[in-house]
Structure prediction request, 118 residues.
Amino acid sequence: MVNPTPDLNSSATSQMAQAREFHPTPLRCLLGGLISAVFAVGLYFLTTAIHKAFTHTPIPNASTTAINIATAVRTLVLGLSALGMVTFGIAALGLFGLTIQLLIQGDKAQSTGTSPRS
Prediction:
C-alpha cells in the first residue's frame, strides 16, 4: 500500500486554523499568571524550608571528600529550588503584564472600532 501524498495547501490551512484558535485573551493570561504566581510562592516557602533545614544540619566532617560532596549537594538542591522559584515568578510577572497589555489594546480597539487582531 502506498500512503497518499498530503496536500500542502490543506495542511497549511489546517495549521493556520489551529493557530487562530489559541489567541491569548486577558482571562487566559490572568489565570496563567495566577497559577505561575502560586507555584512561585510555593517554591519560595520550599526554598526557605530547605535553607533552614540545611542551616540546622551540620555537614559531616569525616573527610575532605565528604565535606565537598555535601556542600555540592546542598548548593545544587538550594539552587534548583531557587531557580524554579525565580522562573515561575518571572513568568507570572510577564503574564500579568501581557494581561494589562491585552486589556489596553482591547480598549483602544473598541474606541477606534477596529479589531486588535488585524
Notes: The CA atoms of residues 109 and 115 lie 6 Å apart. The chain has a mean pLDDT of 86. The helical segments are 8-21, 26-56, 64-112.
